[in-house]
Amino acid sequence: MKRFIDLHIHTVKSDGTFTPVEVLETVRKKKLTAFSITDHDSVDAFFDIEDQLTENDPEYIPGLELSVTLGDSDLHILAYYIDPRSEELQSKVEEFRSYRNERGAMIVQKLNDMEVDITIDDVKKIAGKSAIGRPHIADAIYQAGAVKSYDQAFRMYIGNGKPAYVAKKNFTPENAISMIHNAGGIAVLAHPAIEDTYKHLEMLVGLGLDGIECFHAYHKQKDIDQFKHFAERWHLVITGGSDFHGREGSYGKIGSQHVSEDYLHALKARAGK
Ligand code: AMP
Ligand code: ZN
Ligand code: FE
Ligand code: FE
Predict the structure, then answer these.
(1) Pairing of strands 34-37, 4-9
(2) How far apart are CA 225 and CA 135, in angstroms?
(3) Shortest-distance ligand to the CA of residue 190
(4) Distance 67 CA to ligand 4 centre (A)
(5) Which residue owns the Cα nearest ligand 1 atom 3?
(6) What gap in Å lies between CA 57 and CA 24, rounded to an integer?
(7) pLDDT tens digits for the chain (273 residues)?
(8) Is 64 within 8 Å of 43 (Cβ atoms)?
(9) Segments in 43-189 forming alpha helices (H)
(10) Which phi-psi region, left, alpha or beta, contains residue 231 (left: φ > 0; alpha: ψ -120 to 50)?
(11) What are the domain boundaries of the chain?
């Protein structure tokens, strides 16, 4: 039987709607070989499920997704096999999370200026204990009746380059990659077809990038073929996942990318596992 892995999953620890335990239950049901929870700026999911994992479970790879700014583009870097207990890592991601909340308030202000009546408290209620991400704000806009769908909130207001968009604090690719390596992990360029961030691949390889996410809901077959070719050329490992957020809209369901478990061996070898 063909077995699959899913290396890109979000939970309530950032801007997803499933708890880490619900994700674990789902990957068990789907009989995945391995999975990684890659919350934005958070490794907290690990602490929720570490005690629940048994020998028969899919392999859990500690992960994380960071956003970095490069000129006008927003690059996402995935980390795998990082040590969630690394104090340096934890204090760095804490800084990003606190900036997320400030930025959330800036986005809400811009929305109010455009007559979209939501408050930062509405957003905080949706985000709960997690740092604010745009999906929480999109939910608030939708709940206020200002748009007909979650996706429309991005198209009209908060998508990259839209009127209420606020870029994240300047955090460079160098910072992200070295922070991941210092925490024992490997760094992978996420969904390179979104905003064509693959154009920066050569530079990122120079900074020590280890891999490229080839399989993602946004990628077309020609993207996948091109990214596999890049992986060979730059000696990068290949990864993929659903980018599941638990919401309907432009996201995949857990396991939906059917990423072969065969990619796991190279990933492990690269991380020295
Ligand atoms: P943030 O990290 O706060 O900038 O939010 C990034 C998240 O917003 C991504 O992980 C996606 O879940 C979501 N997102 C960004 N752009 C879009 C879009 N155009 N449509 C739907 N979701 C989006
Ligand atoms: Zn997200
Ligand atoms: Fe991303
Ligand atoms: Fe993601």
Answers:
(1) parallel
(2) 30
(3) 3
(4) 10
(5) 133
(6) 9
(7) 899 999 999 999 999 999 999 999 999 999 999 999 999 999 999 999 999 999 999 999 999 999 998 887 889 999 999 999 999 999 999 999 999 999 999 999 999 999 999 999 999 999 999 999 999 999 999 999 999 999 999 999 999 999 999 988 768 999 999 999 999 999 999 999 999 999 999 999 999 999 999 999 999 999 999 999 999 999 999 999 999 999 887 789 999 999 999 999 999 999 999
(8) yes
(9) 44-49, 87-113, 120-127, 134-143, 150-153, 173-182
(10) alpha
(11) 4-86+189-271
Q: Which ligand is nearest to the CA of 64?
A: 4
| Residue 213 contacts residue 78 (beta carbons within 8 Å) | yes
Element (H, E) at 23: helix 20-29
Separation between Cα atoms, residue 158 and residue 5, nearest integer Å: 31
User: How remote is the CA of residue 65 from the centroid of ligand 3, in Å?
Assistant: 7
Count of C-beta atoms within a 10 Å radius of residue 259 = 26
Q: What is the pLDDT of residue 234?
A: 97
Pocket-testing residue among 154, 155, 160, 216, ligand 1, by greatest number of atoms within 8 A of Cβ: 154
Give the CATH number of domain 4-86+189-271.
3.20.20.140
Q: Would you tell me how many other CB atoms lie within 10 Å of the CB of residue 101?
A: 15
